[in-house]
Amino acid sequence: MASWSLGLLSLLLFLFLFLFLLHQPTTTSAIRIDAIIRKPSSPELPNFREAPAFQNGYSCGSRESDKIHIAMTLDANYLRGTMAAILSMLQHCTCPENLNFHILSAHYAPELYSSINSTFPYLNFKIYRFDSNRVRGKISKSIRQALDQPLNYARIYLADFLPIDVERVIYLDSDIVVVDDIANLWNVSMEDKVVAAPEYCHANFTQYFTDSFWSDPDMPKTFTGRKPCYFNTGVMVVDVEKWRKGGYTEKVEEWMAVQKQKRIYHLGSLPPFLLVFAGNIKAVNHRWNQHGLGGDNFEGKCRKMHPGPISLLHWSGKGKPWLRLDSRKPCPIDHLWAPYDLYHSDKHHFEE
Ligand SMILES: *[C@@H]1O[C@H](CO)[C@@H](O)[C@H](O)[C@H]1NC(C)=O
Ligand SMILES: *[C@@H]1O[C@H](CO)[C@@H](O)[C@H](O)[C@H]1NC(C)=O
Ligand SMILES: *[C@@H]1O[C@H](CO)[C@@H](O)[C@H](O)[C@H]1NC(C)=O
Fold first, then answer.
1. How far is the CA of 118 from the centre of ligand 1 (A)?
2. What is the pLDDT along the chain (352 residues), one digit of tens a residue?
3. Which class does domain 64-340 fall in?
4. Atom 10 (ligand 3): residue with closest C-alpha?
5. Ligand 3 atom, smallest distance to 204 CA
6. Nearest ligand 2 atom, CA 183
7. In ligand 1, which atom is closest to the CA atom of 114?
C-alpha cells in the first residue's frame, strides 16, 4: 500500500516536471524530457503480468479487410482498466491476431508504450498523442470532474487520428470488459448510419438537457424528424469515412460552443453526441453495453445487472472495479472484472 502511494507520488512529481519542462521554449527541453522518461530506475507505472499469446483460429483470414480496428484512450489512472479490457477482447475473440488497437493518449509517454508492449508482447497497437489543447477551451464544467478531462472528448476526434485506410472503428471506454467475440459487434451492418450503439428508448431523454434547452424557441428543433433516444457513447461503432465526409467533429463541437454560452446540459461529452446523433443511429443489441455498473455519478453505489444476455460489461458511473476491489469494499459485480486484472502489486517482480 505504502509503496503504491509512493509510486503515485513520484508519478505526480514526474507529471509536474513534465508539464514544467513542456513550457520551456527551447528545443533542448524535449531531449531533456526524453532522458528523464527513459531513465530505467523510475518505475512510475504499476506493473502488469505478461498476458499469454493469443492465436488466430483456422477460420481466420489475414487480409487487410479481416482486421478489426478498436480505438481506446489511455491515461495512467485508467491503465489498469485498459489492460483488462484488452485482455478480455483477446481472450474471447476467435481471431485475436486480427485485432488492431488505436490508443489515444494525452501525454507523450514512452513508458505507457513499454507498459503495453511488455504486457502484450504480441499486440498490434499504435499510440497516438491527443493534444489536450485541441479541446480544452471548449469544455464546460459538468457534474463530475472526471468527465471534464480533455481525453474524455478524444472520441470526437477519432476520424482525424486514424490512418486513412481505417474505414470503421469500434470506440470503447477503458472501464469495460468484453465477454464475447468482438467480431460480432464489428460486423454490424450500419446501413446508412454513421454510429451504431445500443439504444435506450425507455430512458427519459428529456432529463439529459436543461430547461433552458427545452424552452429555447429554436434548439429543440434539432430533433425535428427524429425520435431521439439515449445511447451511451462508451461503446460505439463508427463509420469513419461517413464521419469525415459529414464533418461530424465540427457538428459536435458546435454544440459544445453553445453549451459554453448557455447551459443546455449537465454531463460532459455525451450530450453533444446525443444532440447530433440521437434518433439517427443504428441500434445494436443491448447485450453490447451493460452500462452503469459503476453506479451513479455522485456516490458510485452498487448496481445490479439488467436481465438478458451480456457481451460487454461497462462500469460507467463513479465507481471503478479496480478501486473498489482495492478498497476491499467491492460490489458483487466487480468480481466479474477481477479475472481480467493483470495488475501485479509486487513491484520487484520484473526487476529481478
Ligand atoms: C516490445 O516488446 C518486444 C518483446 O518483449 C521487444 O522485443 C521489443 O523490442 C519491444 N518494442 C519496443 C519498441 O520497445
Ligand atoms: C457477424 O459474425 C458472426 C460470427 O462471427 C455471425 O454469426 C453473424 O451472422 C455476423 N453478422 C453479420 C451481420 O454479418
Ligand atoms: C422526464 O424528466 C423530466 C425532467 O427531469 C421530468 O420533468 C419528466 O416528468 C420526466 N418524464 C417522465 C415520463 O418520467
1. 7
2. 444 454 554 544 444 444 444 443 333 333 333 333 443 333 478 899 999 999 999 999 999 999 999 999 998 888 999 999 999 999 999 999 999 999 999 877 788 899 999 999 999 999 999 887 777 677 766 656 666 677 888 999 999 999 999 999 999 999 999 999 999 999 999 999 999 999 999 989 999 999 999 999 999 999 999 999 999 999 999 999 999 999 999 999 999 888 888 888 887 789 999 999 999 999 999 999 999 998 876 666 788 888 899 999 999 888 999 999 999 889 999 999 999 999 987 654 444 3
3. alpha beta
4. 204
5. 1
6. 5
7. 14
* Bridge partners, residue 312, by sequence: 178
Query: pTM of this prediction?
Result: 0.84
| Shortest-distance Cα residue to atom 14 of ligand 3 | 204
208 Cα–ligand 3 center, Å = 10
Q: Whose CA is nearest to atom 11 of ligand 3?
A: 204
- Rounded distance between C-alpha atoms, residue 324 and residue 346, angstroms: 19
Residue 109 CA to ligand 3 center (angstroms) comes to 45
